[in-house]
């Protein structure tokens, strides 16, 4: 990219009265230099089957070009028009809950030829029309694409073929998935039942993997069409999103982000998060680390919140902090959903930069300072890159498997992911994200790999992790890792199976903890704590002389079993955490591993709520972001080489104290 | 009416053995002078298609007449017989949840010609048969009528025509309802989808208004039929009810009471409410105020609880208090559901005046005192009327709109209505109820109008309220008032839109409060309170020099914004309450407005739990009810002119102390 | 039976690799002498329609025989193969929720001829093949059989005929079930609607009784087929189970255990229960008492937990305690579900004796001690019988009726059953279970009958209970007893209806208690307690001079009513408990009745958590089990005649102190 982009989603089609030139005037004042259009307005662009009207696109492109604002054009395929559903009701996805009803977006069967026919036609019409327009810098295909639970007869039909292709014989299928159980055995391909009612977690997980594959294929199909039109310097992106808990929480269950990202030129994402007193910066960091890792490069925040919900209206200063937080994680664009608040329909209370009155307001006014600073610092802050030596390995397969076999307290995979990620964040240790399809070379770029709840994994991945340790790497596993095969078949050995070799412990029994604490062994007394174990615990027994038991359980019956262990294996270490321990205890365990690996230093020890993010610019200069996610003024000692604070253009000497106002931040570039 | 009626619902058809003469004997002892019959027993009266058997009606009419007990005959149309459903299964309403199942009452499609054909036939048969019977004083058509969610293809078909009629062009429809959003735009009437899956709040609210219209039409249709038979002096009524939260809570969402009441001679209602230690009298007062306002006259309590649920079994004294509470609100009839407890089926634990043993019991014995007093005081207490100068404006449209856009904490419209109503009640300020279709003259009968959450409203109504203030009226608005158009389109101006003119404040931003209090401005320190704001808050800014800021928010970030304001506009004032503040603080705000308007006086300041209701008899004499909704003895000073306590026939001097026993009451008529 | 059986469910079909001989080796080491096979593996045994493969059965039988391990063969009919559902989708039960989906077990219509045809064929094939095999000692037909909610058109059709047969005339039907209410009256058999939507509790209860009858018929049909093949000395059993609340809680709602047990040679059962610190022994005792009572004899625990859920992993010592607890209740077999933990599918976390690694582990090691002791003590502990003089009367009809008319706090029938049962258990008073179809002679075997919540009951049963008291028996009734007829028609007399005669009290009114306590009358001050009444209370009035009021209510309004009464009637007494009182108060009431009846003695007063179970061996010698369900060491005084502690072969003198370790037990046989 050439510059930082500051943008908004803009819907001329939703405007209650003619606003285009007034909106552009206000955008210019706020430093908005890119808008994102068209991804949800098919029914406006194709009011009747085969009748097209792109006048709103044309006029927005022309006006934006004139104003010097770039445009990202979306393919309008994620919300289908009424005429299509009236003509072909079965274009609506049939899910486990039955046939869908018209109304919401994202309700169609993404494999249905009727949908694909019409989608392809409008993509070609729209992108063919705009691709030469000088305002257009890139394309977004579809939006927050998922499979929408499509599971009708046609999808089942394809799934059976997929299973036959994958397993070859019916015998192999039954064996891998354990279908004998409860008489689910399929003895002939013709007998294959719809899986919507299955209780077999292995079969269910296979189907969900197949559904994710449908998303990957659908996106690649769209990209291939758009690529036919894409001009020099234009990009194609997708707006990925995350497990949604009212905000962007964790790994997306319905999409394999790593696989789906392959055909795109650049990764895009939306990130939403609590605000006001609940603002922590963690979701921005987590979402950024995932998205940056998809293409190993900078990424676009295609959507994030301006005012959004009433409880997300930012406090004064927060909007600025948020924008620079995204940059600190490696974003090259920060774009709000959306410019103006919607006056009807469904997301009326998901407010934009402008309220419903379409006039400047305190949040808009703060955006103006962001826009000005983005413009001023664009050269300094664009294309910043990371040199992380710590990575986290996340897995859709593990996620799905744990959905089928939830923890007794209802915790799921992302609870484990965030439990570990959040403590890394609090330690100011930045990380990249790896998929289960990582190669050995990719692994070896990192000194420490953190592995949360890798419940289902292939033998080869686990062997690779063993080798990684043997060669000098450090791995931290949580409980449940290594437990089952890719087909969610529990290993028939003592647990944790293959990784026992590197970890030097095993177990046969596991417990739902109640009134269980930790007792730190010699040198680890700091881990001792009552009532610090929840969700799950494994009764670990060391099996190698090189195992150090960091802590045992504090419990009248289970007190002889180890809870946390570290094994020296080859040139590296493998740490195994057998239970969900309290966050502060986990932090201590992680910190120690990082210290051993030399991946944490004094400068990362900052006041609570203050975060340090470090990047490198094109010239290789180190750029530090100090971000204060608290309402209080904070003081930190600058630990880098003498540098320049970029916002104030002020030199900062090594060791000099930096004062951060509440919800404030500063950016220091080493000379 | 000529007299007070004391009644019961009576079902000879449900009796486990021959009881008629014994029941009448017990009724006479209890002073029961009216029974309500037949509204739920179609399958007894028409055992087979076209075969009629009204013998139970005939014999009850004859026996009651002989005993001097009047009868209200219901049209038996709210519970359909099995033969109809076997012949025509599609007579069951298809709702958002799909096709209905036979079993409950109120499950049919009230627009279905099969149902209408059979309903008309039995109405004509039954009413034609009984209308000349001297026992019959009136008719109830159907019962607790609603639309039962009917939303099948036939209803959708009519709805489309209704939309075309209302909006004229497809363009106007799309604009008003904002259908462009998420590609919901309808570009041809043929494309109009079923709205059962819509996510568009404007379209959804239109459909619910249409469904309420179906109820209005259905009731008018029944009334027209019955009117063909109605004799001199007979009336036609309907049994309206309320939002049900296990008891009668607030405005009925599925019926526009004001519109539906038009064809009736007199309004009827059922009111149920918590009892024992939870008895407050508020539901009786609220339900009474609504129902009295429908026809601007006295009303019938067609159903209220005798023993009902186990937790509603009245304490000794409560049954009496309740009966006179209804009279104090303007009822001319108090009738229990029901005479006897049912031995089978569904409402077995909704107990009547008699328990399942059909013998006298303590509650029945207390009813005997009520019956005797009703008879004795009938001339004094019949046709009492109100001269209220305070009114509350309630709106089905606002209710539906807020259902579509619920408050973040789940609160809905009726929570706001009751929040304001309950404080008026506690201030002993009686009010009438107004609909959004009120005329200017009607408005001007009142000195103070309280307006809870008028979220969706026409421009004309809001302009009329501005004019009302300008001419000298006082309005108290809650937050959210004026926010959206009738079509639930948020106004494109600063909020609260049109009423900003009278209120002199506006806002662009709103918050979900957390740890927010009030800080009373000079002269209003009494409003200061920590943690007193919940549900919703608007960041108000005065825009007029005449605005007095009563309170600002107590919060580190939002402390500069006003929370409560009062504006002098023309000759009146408009008070705007921008947040859900604690009840006691709201009471202070209301009290002050009422004081300014001269609508509250010392006599309304009574011990907590003691309520004063004031009416006028035909002679224009003031009649005061002092009602003690506590278990303790209470003392109040009688503030009227010298008068007569009607129960004891004792004179009461002005200023004299009145002693009210726990759950007791007294009635004083000024001389 | 000849010996104690110690067993496991064994599924060669589910094994991830060849294990048979290794498994048998480990079983032998653990003293396993019986396995249970084949009840869930139809799709393995009949891979295609009409193609059979019993090789896994054959090889298991041969290998077990060789090892001296007996086998119980199940008919594999409770989980249907995919080919059947593909050929005949309507074989899946249609329930209130609609058509079923393939996947789980227990989803078919047990009345469907397609299912019955295939089920009969495989039963004959399998049982015909194995019945002469010397390893086979018996058969289990189906498993945990229920009706699975089957309620489709075919079942409705049969139900109508059943109703016509039962009631004869449509008039009688309408009268008994109260169908007039809400126009549900059926005036012609052709009009009979599907009852899936009924709101009539009487009709609904009739249908559920009919569904239970379907289970009885289905099981009898299977038994008849198996009996054709059953050899000398072989038995047929069924695996009954209980109301499931995450564990075996109470009376099974979907099966009439007493009726269904008739055709079986011996009753079998599965019992699961909380463990670790939540282990109380009550579920084992309750389930055992029910199952023992079905045939009046010893029974088989066909399934109980080994490791099962993470929170049920037994503490050291608990597995032993549990096994002997079953024996103490009269079991002749304790068999785990299951041998090995499952590696795929659904019950992966319902762990067996072996974990997924299929190796010895601490629980397995403890099982070895059980197996050894079972073998050693088999002659001493097999065929122990009870001589209980206390019984509890439980009723499916009352259970269903209370489901239709739940208590206001959501409590149901089994909450009342367990409320009473648990206090008997804590008093160390053992009881048998009686059904409503008990005969007068059977009743008279007992001195005390405890009757929880007998809400729906025939006149004849209640008269019989009156007679029982008159002749000298003692009955303790809870509230709600006697309230309604078998057809769930509330009695039209004062309550508790017919039993008023023996109880000497009646009531007309009942309350949902709030802040209500007890006030013990003279001599019963021990019952006084504030806030001790919950769920339900009846306002009792003594009507006989022989009534002793044990306690009245402590409440400002209801304080004059009796809460607990005892009446001397004839030669016996009837105690009536009108409210759900606190458990410790109930215990006092029960204890006093038992003392009067001479059915409790000093030896039953033991430290909390220590249980005494008493049986008799074939020689008539008394055998006492002292079971310590606490983690602490307990001391008890042995109260029997001089005897022999069977585990240690140590003599114990009368009065000698016995020391029980935490989760320990001892067994003393009188000399």
Beta-strand segment tally of chain A: 33
Please give the order of strands in the largest beta sheet of chain A.
7-6-3-2-1-13-12-11-8
Question: End-to-end span of chain A in angstroms?
Answer: 23 Å
The amount of helix of chain A comes to: 25-40%
SS element count, helices of chain A: 18
Major pleated sheet of chain A: 9 strands, parallel
Q: What is the correct CATH architecture of the domain at 390-600 in chain A?
A: 3-Layer(aba) Sandwich
Q: Give the low-pLDDT segments of chain A.
A: none
Tell me which protein chains meet in the greatest interface and how many residues each side has.
B-C, 53 and 47 residues
Query: From the helix content, strand content and strand pairing of chain A, which structural class follows?
Result: alpha/beta
CATH class of the domain at 390-600 in chain A: Alpha Beta
The CATH superfamily title of the domain at 390-600 in chain A: Class I glutamine amidotransferase (GATase) domain
Q: How much β-strand is present in the residues of chain A? A: 15-25%
CATH topology of the domain at 390-600 in chain A: Rossmann fold
Cα Rg of chain A: 26 Å
Quaternary organisation of the protein chains? homotrimer
Domain Beta-galactosidase trimerisation (chains A, B, C): 389-597
InterPro entries (chains A, B, C): Beta_galactosidase_Trimer (IPR013738), Class_I_gatase-like (IPR029062), GH (IPR017853), Glyco_hydro_42 (IPR003476), Glyco_hydro_42_N (IPR013529)
Domain Glycoside hydrolase family 42 N-terminal (chains A, B, C): 10-375
Enzyme class (chains A, B, C): hydrolase
């Amino acid at each position: 990219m050439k510059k930082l982009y500051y943008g908004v989603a803009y819907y001329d089609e939703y405007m209650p009265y003619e606003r285009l030139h007034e909106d552009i005037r206000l955008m210019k004042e706020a430093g908005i230099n890119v808008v994102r259009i068209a991804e949800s307005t098919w029914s406006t662009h194709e009011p009747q089957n085969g009748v097209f009207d792109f006048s709103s696109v044309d006029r927005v492109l022309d006006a934006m070009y004139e104003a010097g604002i770039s445009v990202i054009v979306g393919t309008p395929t994620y919300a289908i028009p009424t005429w299509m559903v009236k003509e072909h009701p079965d274009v609506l996805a049939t899910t486990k809950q039955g046939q869908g009803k018209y109304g919401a977006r994202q309700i169609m069967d993404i494999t249905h030829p009727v949908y694909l026919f019409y989608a392809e036609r409008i993509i070609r019409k729209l992108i063919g029309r705009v691709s030469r327009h000088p305002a257009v810098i890139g394309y977004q295909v579809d939006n927050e694409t998922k499979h929408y639970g499509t599971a009708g007869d046609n999808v089942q039909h394809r799934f059976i073929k997929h299973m036959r292709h994958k397993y070859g014989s019916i015998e192999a299928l039954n064996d891998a998935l354990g279908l004998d159980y409860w008489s689910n055995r399929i003895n002939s391909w013709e007998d294959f039942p719809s899986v919507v009612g299955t209780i077999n977690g292995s079969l269910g997980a296979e189907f969900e993997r197949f559904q994710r594959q449908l998303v990957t294929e659908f996106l690649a199909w769209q990209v291939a069409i758009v690529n036919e039109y894409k001009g020099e310097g234009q990009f194609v992106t997708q707006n990925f999103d995350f497990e949604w808990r009212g905000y962007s929480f964790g790994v997306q269950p319905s999409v394999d982000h790593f696989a789906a990202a392959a055909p795109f030129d650049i990764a895009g994402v939306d990130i939403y998060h609590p605000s006001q007193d609940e603002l922590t910066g963690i979701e921005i960091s987590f979402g950024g680390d995932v998205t940056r890792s998809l293409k190993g490069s900078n990424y676009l925040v295609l959507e994030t919140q301006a005012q959004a919900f009433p409880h997300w209206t930012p406090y004064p200063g927060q909007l600025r902090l948020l924008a620079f937080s995204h940059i600190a994680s490696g974003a090259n664009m920060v774009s709000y959903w959306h410019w103006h608040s919607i006056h009807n329909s469904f997301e009326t209370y998901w407010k934009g930069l402008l309220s419903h009155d379409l006039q400047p307001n305190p949040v808009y006014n703060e955006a103006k300072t962001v826009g000005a600073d983005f413009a001023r610092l664009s050269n300094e802050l664009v294309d910043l890159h990371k040199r992380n030596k710590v990575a986290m390995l996340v897995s859709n397969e593990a996620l799905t498997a744990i959905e089928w076999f939830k923890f007794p307290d209802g915790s799921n995979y992302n609870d484990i992911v965030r439990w570990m990620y959040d403590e890394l964040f609090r330690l100011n240790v930045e990380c990249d994200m790896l998929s289960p399809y990582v190669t050995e070379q990719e692994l070896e770029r990192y000194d420490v790999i953190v592995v949360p709840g890798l419940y289902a994994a292939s033998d080869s991945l686990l062997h690779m992790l063993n080798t990684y340790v043997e060669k000098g790497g450090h791995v931290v596993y949580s409980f449940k890792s290594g437990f089952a095969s890719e087909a969610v078949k529990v290993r028939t050995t003592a647990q944790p199976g293959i990784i026992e070799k590197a970890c030097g412990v095993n177990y046969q029994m596991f417990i739902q903890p109640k009134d269980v604490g930790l007792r730190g062994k010699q040198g680890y007394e700091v881990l001792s704590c009552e009532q610090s174990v929840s969700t799950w615990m494994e009764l670990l027994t060391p099996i190698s002389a090189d195992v150090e038991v960091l802590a045992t359980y504090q419990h009248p019956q289970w007190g002889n079993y180890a809870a946390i262990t570290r094994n020296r294996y080859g040139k590296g270490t493998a740490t195994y955490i057998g239970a969900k321990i309290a966050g502060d205890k986990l932090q201590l365990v992680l910190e120690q591993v990082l210290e051993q690996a030399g991946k944490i230093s004094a400068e990362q020890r900052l006041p609570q709520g203050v975060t340090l993010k470090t990047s490198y610019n094109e010239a290789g200069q180190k750029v530090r972001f100090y971000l204060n996610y608290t309402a209080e003024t904070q003081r930190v000692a600058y630990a880098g080489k003498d540098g320049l604070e970029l916002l104030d253009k002020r030199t900062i000497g090594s060791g000099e104290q930096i004062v951060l106002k509440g919800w404030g931040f500063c950016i220091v570039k080493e000379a």
